[in-house]
């Protein structure tokens, strides 16, 4: 049996973790018989496979679909609260909008049910049919009212980046309705050049995340979005912190870079947060120096194997953080950001 950790001030809040509900093949076929994702539970239930039609997509573990297994892992990790969001293959942005809206509603109901088994420990983020902005805004508001603490979106929609007028309208809606947004990279660039060694995750994923951030900064989109928007980029903001000096230098010396961006890119770091999933003390130090400790939140990418194995260890063992900074990154920033 798992235990419920009851305390007034959580010590560790993980804002970036995934789930995948027990979607049947029949359910998936209602969206797309050939490509929609579904869950095959293998053998005695100790393992599973996310499928796409007849094709195996990736092996998964029970804590991805079982709340009991998930909370047992949180107990073992000493984690008080974990936010769970869709595995990006569930987004279904290529589906017809009406079908995608029904799918998002069903997946959000699954997320709410998953978290309802342990409501003090698990908090859901919604998904939305981003291919139709009106439907996406409606589902974000519905899910927020139903108990989701925010919404997760992909960093792009086909060739439309976050500076697209429709996507900016969605972000404005979230700002106006106090709906926190987690941006997750997906559908990574590179195609056949990224076919081996998990290069989409190692190269393209950080690049996609940086592209999402810079599309908002350099396009001037942040000038249109209220400062009240609670916006967080997963995976430590990708390559953003390391390459910000390069971007500032380009802004200073090339008018084509600054034509839509009235201020140096480094002056926009107060418009968004990032998670701490960078896996290296030096990288975390740079991330905190660039973003400020008040804009970094604990994120693990749990329960996938590329996530942090011991959630929070990187932050807990970072000697360059003082006690207040460490506590803010581990829990305090997330409490404020998501209103936990």
TrEMBL record:
Molecular function as annotated in GO: aminocarboxymuconate-semialdehyde decarboxylase activity; hydrolase activity; metal ion binding
GO aspect biological process, one term: secondary metabolic process
Domain Amidohydrolase-related span(s) in chain numbering: 13-340
Gene Ontology CC terms, in alphabetical order: cytosol
Keyword Zinc found: yes
Metal-binding keyword on record: yes
SUPFAM superfamilies with a match to the protein in the record: Metallo-dependent hydrolases
First-tier enzyme category under EC: lyase
Superkingdom in the source lineage: Bacteria
InterPro entries listed in its UniProt record: ACMSD (IPR032465), Amidohydro-rel (IPR006680), Metal_Hydrolase (IPR032466)
Entry keywords, A to Z: Decarboxylase, Lyase, Metal-binding, Zinc
Pathway: Secondary metabolite metabolism; quinolate metabolism
E.C. number: 4.1.1.45
Family: Belongs to the metallo-dependent hydrolases superfamily. ACMSD family.
UniProt subunit comment: Monomer.
Protein name: 2-amino-3-carboxymuconate-6-semialdehyde decarboxylase
Naturally occurring in which organism (per UniProt): Azoarcus indigens
């Amino acid at each position: 049996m798992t235990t419920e950790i009851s305390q007034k001030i959580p010590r560790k809040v993980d804002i970036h973790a995934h789930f995948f509900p027990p979607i049947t093949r029949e359910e998936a076929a209602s969206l797309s018989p050939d490509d929609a994702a579904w869950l095959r539970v293998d053998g005695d239930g100790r393992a599973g496979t996310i499928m796409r039609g007849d094709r195996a997509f990736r092996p998964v573990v029970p804590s991805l679909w079982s709340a009991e297994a998930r909370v047992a892992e949180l107990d073992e990790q000493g984690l008080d609260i974990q936010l769970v969001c869709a595995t990006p293959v569930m987004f279904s942005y290529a589906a017809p909008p009406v079908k995608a809206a029904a799918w998002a509603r069903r997946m959000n109901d699954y997320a709410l049910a998953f978290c309802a088994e342990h409501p003090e420990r698990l908090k859901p983020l919604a998904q939305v049919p981003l291919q139709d902005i009106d439907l996406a805004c409606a589902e974000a508001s519905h899910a927020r009212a139903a108990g989701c603490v925010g919404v997760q979106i992909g960093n792009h929609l086909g060739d439309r980046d976050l500076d697209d007028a429709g996507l900016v309208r969605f972000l404005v809606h979230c700002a106006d309705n106090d709906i926190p947004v987690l941006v997750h990279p997906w559908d990574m660039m590179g195609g056949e050049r990224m076919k081996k060694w998990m290069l989409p995750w190692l190269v393209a994923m950080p690049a996609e995340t940086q592209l999402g951030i810079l599309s908002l900064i350099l396009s001037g989109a942040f000038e249109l979005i209220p400062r009240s928007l609670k916006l967080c980029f997963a995976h430590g903001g990708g390559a953003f912190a390391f390459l910000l000096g390069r971007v500032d230098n380009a802004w200073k010396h090339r008018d084509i870079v600054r034509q839509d961006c009235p201020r140096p890119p480094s002056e926009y770091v107060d418009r968004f947060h990032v998670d701490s999933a960078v896996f290296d003390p030096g990288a975390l130090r740079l991330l905190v120096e660039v973003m400020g400790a008040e804009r970094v939140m604990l994120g693990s990418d749990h329960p996938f194997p590329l996530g942090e194995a011991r959630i929070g260890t990187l932050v807990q063992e970072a000697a360059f953080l003082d006690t207040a900074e460490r506590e803010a990154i581990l829990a305090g920033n997330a409490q404020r950001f998501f209103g936990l």
